[in-house]
Here is the input.
Amino acid sequence: MKKLCTADQMHHMDQTAMYGKYKIAPVVLMENAGHAVVEKAKDLIISWHNKRVIVFCGKGNNGGDGFVIARHILAEGARVFVYVLGKDASYSTEANYHLQTLYAMAEEGSCVIENYAEGNEDNQQLHQRLKETDIIVDAIVGTGFHGQLHNPATFLVRCINDAAKNGKIKVIAVDIPTGVNTDTGEISGNGEEHTGEPIYADMTVTFGALKRGMQFYPGKKCCGSIVWDPIGMPVSLLRNREQNAAYLLETADIERVLCSRAPDSHKGTHGTIAVVSGSRDMIGAPLMTCRGAMRAGAGKIFLRVPEQTASYCIGKLPEIMVRGIGSGSEFSENDVFQILEEAKKWTVIAIGPGMGKNSKTKTFIQEVIRNTTCPIVIDADALNLIHSEKEFISPYGKRIIMTPHLAEFSRLSGVSIAEVKKDVIEAAKHFVHEWNVTLVLKGAPTVIVSSDAQTVYVNPTGNAGMAAGGMGDVLTGMIAAFAAHDGMPDLCAAACSGVFIHGAAGDYCYNKYGPYGYSPCEVADAIPRVIKALEIAGDTASEDRNLFGMMESI
Ligand SMILES: NC(=O)C1=CN([C@@H]2O[C@H](COP(=O)(O)OP(=O)(O)OC[C@H]3O[C@@H](n4cnc5c(N)ncnc54)[C@H](OP(=O)(O)O)[C@@H]3O)[C@@H](O)[C@H]2O)[C@@H](O)CC1
Ligand SMILES: [K+]
Here is the structure.
């Protein structure tokens, strides 16, 4: 997994590298950062040779990186204009050092430097240069961005976006696109027209650690492809655990917890999953939950539905064992006894999909939670029914995984969707502090929070084609199955495994069928392929374990 840092954490990492025991000279770290952009950008532009490039350098250290970039690409044969937004004296020592080198080169006629801080700018000339350029480097503002963009950044960013909108000019952002909040992914201008819009880059080369704001919309949309470079940071700083840690999940993390299955294991080893769900109008949901559990390798699956719906379920999935409970079309407290008689044999319960909104069902759910001891995955209608039951749920939280989408989360937390979106990680952690559960907050991206609220995981897999009814039901079954997986370390690891593989299976369907229109059952049926790809990834010595490339070849 890769660390996802806030601006403060990044600042702390930089300071420790430079002024802690490692004593890396600031000018060297900046040199490494600038050089990393020059090298990594070749994936996008192939070569700097003979390219016309404008480098916009802001007043902070992000601008300093821009000076280094300009020097290196000059050496590679680019024709370079550098716009300098700050005054020499206001730059940090290291940025000024690189600026003076560049001035010396400009004096020889190697490049043109425009001092944009002087207030007598020739914007006609700027527009002309933008029209004729091949590449724009955005080193205007990096992790030091706060609030809304102000001039001259606002004006320059608009000119850059305008020039690049036909796609011919490539925009490379240094560390993070100007105008994107490092911590949250909020953007300057909130996406409204004629406000201080952010840079929309084709590629972002980011330093030391990934930034949280680049994984969340709308900021993510500004980044283009994201490339990370360690810029020579000491490995302990790259890997050490932050307080308030967040991580981006990677293939290797999931492969490590999932792929071994003892050759002498049997169906009892791989969990007995009970899907307790459904109601008269929504019987497909629990069936899809069962299918998710089956494809994720559950040893045995019991489906328990209200009696009046049982006949619709029997035989739909021959692999599962179906029984009708009670006598009605929805669960009620009268059905608890029958469920509890069996529950001792169950490894994990999945409850919620298609359960309906009847308040009697709420009592049923609470009694099941109160009188069982195994892990429970709570989803969909069950979440809505217990939305006001924080005090009831929290004592049982350590064995509960909740899987709300944004609207369900908003109902549970009492926070509007718009507010949650402003800082998804903080909203999710705050919720877990109060409810004590393992949380899977479904969205783009899905976020998983451990029940101690100490660690947040962000999932990189999945696509917009998965925004369709039934996808969540499949995920619930998968998480239940993985929670019962032999050797699974804890519920949080099970949740991460389910979310990551579910998204990867969706990505497989995207490639096979098209961007949308594939079904939740097709996603479920792709799970074994993903697990196979994980297995291959685990056997591959290569550092670059590209799961998606491997799935193509299976
Ligand atoms: N040693 C290191 O630390 C290393 C750091 N590195 C690099 O440094 C970057 C962080 O540098 P940093 O901290 O100097 O901040 P930075 O992103 O340049 O922004 C500050 C400037 O932005 C301006 N600004 C802010 N908000 C604004 C707004 N709304 N609208 C307009 N302007 C706004 C603000 O101006 P002000 O608002 O104060 O007028 C100020 O001048 C980091 O992203 C990485 O690239 C690498 O070299 C590796 C080593
Ligand atoms: K930038």
